[in-house]
Specification:
With about 90 residues, the chain is mainly β. It has one domain: Thrombin, subunit H. The chain is about 0% helix and about 50% strand. The strands form two sheets. It has a four-stranded antiparallel β-sheet with strand order 1-2-3-4, with no helix packed on it.
């Protein structure tokens, strides 16, 4: 028997009202979203050996380059820029 859980989705568009989201990646306790303009927004908890970083509402990551692709693992996220550079946050090694 499957338990039914009534959950009302959170509308994140209130925070990202002027952004068009083109991709989303989900980790164990966090999410990242890529916008049409190449910005990345992050919310949730990224676990690192030295710290846990948590934000409840989508927050723009300042990377300094246009991001064209995002991916997420269990406790890390990676971003590819339009020039082919690779950036990462979280526990990656």
């Amino acid at each position: 028997m499957i338990n039914k859980i009534d959950v009302e989705p959170t509308i994140l568009q209130r925070v990202l009202i002027n952004e068009k989201i083109t991709d989303v990646a989900i980790g164990e306790k966090f999410s990242v979203a890529l916008t049409e303009s190449g910005d990345v927004y992050y919310w949730g908890t990224i676990i690192h050996e030295a710290f846990n970083y948590t934000v409840e509402l989508p927050t723009k990551l300042v990377i300094g380059h246009k991001i064209v692709q995002i991916a997420a693992g269990r406790i890390h996220a990676m971003f590819v820029t339009n020039s082919g550079m690779l950036y990462a946050i979280g526990y990656i090694f």
